[in-house]
């Protein structure tokens, strides 16, 4: 797709190899969002080459800047006040501080929006109208603008005015009814997922929606408003579990780590912990039985076919547990992998980054940071052969690029910028 604006030139963070142009180079994004869902979308667009400007409150910035510990440490090992949470979602952006409570600040953001291709915001419904920064107002100054609103419950409906949080959506959207030990089991009860998964999925949906809107703009020269709700996304991501209810009339329940439609597909105890066995078909089950030293199970009429295994789940799981407890996780994984049975350990996060395959995929990156020699971050998983992800900027310090952006985007003079700073607009 053609993009109207050219990105301003800026120095990349230190990295090996020449800096290549990203797939979205030339795309200008104004990111007014905070916390995770919106910033995650902004980071993904930035990783793909877009010039993403993070607009923050002077003095405080994004809420997550204070969500610590842990904090980034400086060269002496002392905490810098830059939180790990903030670092996780704001790479490759440039930070500009603007006071939206003042008319001059509102006018400044409107000017930036007039030069942008995309705007991302997660204010409460109607929250930006008081500043003249809602979609209808900005559509008048920039009809090509793709305006992405992320809220808890969407722009319409009886819950629209409510604030929305990931934990709340995991509960209201059904995910917690599926997560946790089954009723009657030790440790029973609903659980949230260990990361803010609804926020992350919403950020991914937002990125897809933004690119779809840009493709539509390519054909029509017209931007549009994207209404994205965390609750909608959570429901959409129920996938086969929602289909079980809508098509089969079955209300899924918590099953711990077991799968409702496939057996064996869960964790099993070993001599030193747990391992996962993920058998997806009858052929794999036969291999699994042979690896366990119980080849006769694969011809047992109770277990030979997956529907029978699901029906006789409790009997089969008890039998497998009785065998797996006799060897260590490492021993079983070697045996299962040699037999072609999908399996793996339940890794802690440190073990994830110690894994040889993860290291070979370079899923940990190091970026230079003004307050520390390097900051360690998780790499973007997208691998593009012709326009690979580039790591240009570490997550920016608050307001670090205000002058730079106002000069590049709005061609402001030093005197104009200094006047804004003197009046505490920026």
Automatic annotation (TrEMBL):
SUPFAM superfamilies, alphabetized: CoA-transferase family III (CaiB/BaiF)
The UniProt record lists the keyword NADP: no
GO molecular function: CoA-transferase activity
Name recorded for this polypeptide: Lipid metabolism-like protein
Pfam families in UniProt: CoA_transf_3 (PF02515)
Domain of life: Bacteria
Record InterPro entries: CoA-transferase_III_domain (IPR050483), CoA-Trfase_fam_III (IPR003673), CoA-Trfase_III_dom3_sf (IPR044855), CoA-Trfase_III_dom_1_sf (IPR023606)
Alphabetically ordered keywords of this record: Transferase
């Amino acid at each position: 797709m053609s993009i109207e604006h050219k990105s301003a030139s800026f120095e990349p963070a230190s990295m090996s190899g020449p800096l290549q142009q990203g797939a979205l180079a030339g795309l200008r994004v104004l990111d007014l969002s905070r916390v995770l869902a919106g910033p995650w979308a902004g980071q993904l667009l930035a990783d793909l080459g877009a010039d993403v400007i993070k607009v923050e409150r002077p003095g405080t910035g994004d809420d997550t800047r204070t969500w610590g510990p842990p904090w980034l440490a400086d060269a002496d090992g002392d905490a810098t006040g830059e939180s790990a949470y903030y670092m996780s979602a704001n790479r490759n952006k440039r930070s500009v501080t603007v006071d939206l409570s003042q008319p001059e600040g509102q006018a400044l953001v409107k000017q930036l929006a007039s030069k942008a291709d995309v705007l991302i915001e997660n204010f409460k419904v109607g929250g930006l109208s008081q500043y003249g920064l809602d979609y209808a107002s900005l559509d008048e100054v920039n009809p090509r603008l793709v305006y992405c609103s992320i809220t808890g419950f969407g722009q319409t409906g009886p819950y629209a005015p409510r604030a929305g949080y990931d934990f709340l959506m995991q509960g209201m959207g059904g995910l917690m009814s599926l997560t946790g030990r089954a009723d009657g089991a030790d440790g029973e009860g609903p659980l949230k997922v260990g990361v803010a998964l609804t926020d992350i999925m919403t950020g991914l949906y937002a990125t897809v929606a933004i690119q779809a809107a840009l493709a539509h703009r390519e054909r029509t020269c017209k931007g549009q408003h994207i209404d994205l709700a965390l609750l909608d996304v959570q429901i959409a991501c129920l996938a086969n579990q929602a289909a079980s209810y809508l098509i089969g009339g079955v209300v899924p329940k918590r099953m711990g780590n077991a799968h409702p439609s496939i057996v064996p597909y869960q964790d099993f105890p070993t001599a030193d912990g747990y391992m996962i066995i993920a058998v997806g078909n009858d052929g794999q089950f036969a291999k699994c039985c042979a690896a366990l030293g119980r080849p006769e199970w694969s011809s047992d009429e109770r277990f030979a076919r997956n529907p029978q295994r699901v029906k006789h789940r409790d009997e089969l799981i008890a039998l497998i547990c009785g065998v797996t407890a006799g060897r260590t996780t490492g021993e079983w994984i070697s045996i299962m992998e040699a037999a072609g049975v999908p399996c793996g350990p339940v890794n802690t996060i440190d073990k994830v980054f110690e894994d040889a395959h993860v290291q070979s995929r370079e899923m940990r990156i190091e970026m230079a940071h003004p307050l520390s020699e390097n900051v360690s971050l998780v790499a973007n998983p997208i691998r593009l052969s012709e326009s690979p992800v580039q790591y240009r900027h570490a997550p920016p310090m608050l307001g670090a690029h205000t002058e730079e952006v106002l000069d590049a985007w709005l061609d402001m003079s030093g005197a104009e910028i200094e006047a804004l700073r003197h009046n505490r607009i920026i």
